[in-house]
Amino acid sequence: MTAKQILKRGCLALAGILALSFLIRLNHIEKREIYHSEGQTFERAKVLRILEDNLTESGSRIGNQKVRLQILTGELKGTETEAYSSSSWLFGAACREGMHVIAIVNSSEQTLEVSVYTAERAFGTGAMILLFFVCIFLVGGKKGLASIAGLVCSVICILFLFLPLIYRGISPILAALSVNAVIAAATFLLIGKNPAKTAAAIIGTIGGTVVACIYAWLFGIVTQISGYNVSDIEELMYLSEQTGIRVGELLFAGILIASLGAVMDVGMSIASAQHEIHAIRPDLSAGELFSSGMRVGKDMIGTMSNTLILAFAGGSLHTLIYLYACDYPLLQLANMYSLTIEIMHGISATMGVVMTVPLTAAVGAVLLTRR
Prior knowledge:
Blueprint lengths: L2 H24 L13 E13 L11 E8 L8 E7 L13 E8 L4 E8 L2 H46 L4 H20 L3 H29 L9 H11 L6 H31 L5 H30 L1 H10 L3 H4 L3 H33 L2
Parallel strand pairs: 3-5
Antiparallel strand pairs: 1-2, 1-4, 2-3, 4-5
């Protein structure tokens, strides 16, 4: 191992230690209690017996099941108790003997009340995630491992950087821009080896997400939509009063985060194509290389635009099918807050993809042809 390689790895290790120290310090937050939950815990439990079933002759469930549970975690571990399981769509579970569930335990010195919150699904979720990672590795090899590392980095940035920054009162838009830059840089540095290609992809990606944010802001001004026009604004305003979170910027920060994946895809694809072209034809000028990148980007715009629009349509499918079934007048639909916000999401993210093409092509052409 050369001295240069040792120095590089040492710098990476130091940067990792500093980043980890910063995240640990950032996440030392004393959260204010939003909802009173003293004496209430969520514990794993096992269904021992069905005492009273709520299954009807038609096969549907009405009312509550009465079951006997054995609590498997917490201070009451090993305790057997009776509990009720609701038949609602969001809470409770269709309990069977031997089934593992999550129970809500309300305990005090005099009473113990237990109900079934939901079926235990953490193990199944973890198994599906592991299978997903295995497939990426089998198909992608070393590049697949780099992709997994980039994905893990993205999750860490969202959970332990983006959310704590917002909770501390930092502007959600600035936090989203910072997190986007960190995710893009980390992912591209893990995947790409050529410095010029990686730098072009990073700069193009950051520029594209900034364009998406600016376009969403302009869209909001033109259509008189702000971050306070969302459906769950009452809960968010209460949260803002208790924590100081800037609720009005969350809508636009969400657009920044949502557009990052597609913008990164376009940025790296164009930078990689330019790098391969330059490797074969190193005599091409910056202008010729820019034209090549633009031609590649133009082919991607159509498919990526459809990808984003369809992704947002799929995410708002419940809203769309409800509006379709209610058969609202066209004039009402065209001026609804919820529908206009979904359109703003899709078009703003697509605008970020569109503008990533010339940005990445220009930066890549300059960096690759620079002596």
